[in-house]
Write a structure and sequence with these properties.
- The chain is α/β, with parallel strands linked by helices and about 300 residues long.
- It has two domains: about 170 residues, 3-Layer(aba) Sandwich (Rossmann fold); about 120 residues, no CATH class.
- It has nine helices and nine strands.
- The strands form two sheets. Strands 2-3-1-4-5 form a five-stranded parallel sheet, sandwiched between helices. Strands 7-8-6-9 form a four-stranded parallel sheet, sandwiched between helices.
- Helix 8 crosses helix 9.
Length: about 300
């Protein structure tokens, strides 16, 4: 067989998660990026679809599966394991959001939750939106625990598109290491694996010249670097990750998200994330995310 006749390996992205968390936004991004996309595929057809895609040399395909096929969701983790066991390059992205954000999104869109007519309540009562969301979390919990999670609660559609693009373009390595900053005032992101609190560090917010800036700006970085405890904090976090990262890799994890939080997610956490990214630049793929780096109160 000539070299030019060898088809490239099939690259599969499986998109799943909580209804209202942004799957349609992510799927459109994948379609615009050249993936052949299919939405709401029943679990029982997933293996057949992937086999046909491989035979047709489609190269890159994306499939969205969610609670709209509730009777089959329990089978999905085993199907994923079987596909990977056969050598399928399969990346699973699980989108999530907190309940308050989901309720607001449903209110704005005026859409019905997919489980509204599928939950059996005593006396035939109609389930509330929060009851539907809670049941959906139960159905998807086994899948969420073993795949890469993106918490979209505070993300704009543009941020979500950028984060998904980073993931699907990352070279396949044993583990994708992600450093992200966040604001404690908005809550700890649900996609974090390791969380470090840097609110004990000196705060640039109280310097009127630094307040409008972020931790990526040189004056803020220089100001924070002048404090010995800031360097010690970064050294300690670096040492912890360097010690335990090999164990996460040995555990065959595909992703590790390290979240660094301060009050407003603008100064200290952003600076620490940027410094950690520089120290771990030799690890690839490496992703850097900032959830809240706009000027905000008590950053």
């Amino acid at each position: 067989m000539q070299e030019e006749d060898i088809a490239p390996p099939l690259n599969v992205v499986l998109l799943t998660g909580i209804s209202g968390s942004g799957k349609s936004v992510a799927l459109r991004l994948l379609e615009d990026s050249g993936f052949t996309c299919i939405d709401n595929l029943p679990v029982r057809f997933l293996q057949e679809f992937i086999a046909n895609a491989r035979e047709s040399n489609l190269g890159r395909v994306a499939v969205a599966i969610d609670v709209r096929s509730p009777g089959e969701l329990a089978e999905l983790p085993d199907v994923i394991t079987a596909l990977r066991g056969m050598g399928t390059h399969l990346r699973v992205i699980f989108l999530d959001a907190n309940t308050e954000t989901l309720v607001q999104r449903y209110s704005e869109s005026r859409r019905r939750h997919p489980l509204t007519d599928r939950l059996d309540l005593p006396g035939g009562a109609r389930p509330s939106l929060k009851e539907c969301i809670a049941r959906e979390r139960e159905l998807l919990a086994p899948l969420r625990e073993q795949e890469h999670v993106i918490d979209t609660s505070e993300l704009t559609p543009g941020q979500l598109r950028a984060w998904v693009r980073d993931l699907v373009q990352a070279d396949r390595r044993p583990l994708v290491l992600t450093f992200q900053s966040f604001a404690y005032k908005r809550g700890v992101p649900r996609d974090a694996d390791l969380v470090f609190d840097v609110r004990c560090l000196p705060n640039p917010h109280y310097d009127s010249n630094l307040r409008p800036l972020t931790g990526r700006d040189e004056p803020v970085a220089k100001w924070l670097a002048g404090f010995e405890q800031v360097g010690q904090m970064i050294d300690d976090i670096t040492a912890f990750i360097r010690k335990w990262l090999p164990r996460y890799i040995q555990d065959t994890r595909s992703y590790l998200t390290v979240a660094i939080g301060c009050t407003g997610g603008q100064h200290r956490s952003v600076y620490v994330v940027e410094e950690l990214a520089r120290r771990f630049a030799d690890h690839q793929p490496l992703l850097v995310r900032h959830r809240n780096q706009l000027p905000d109160e008590h950053a």
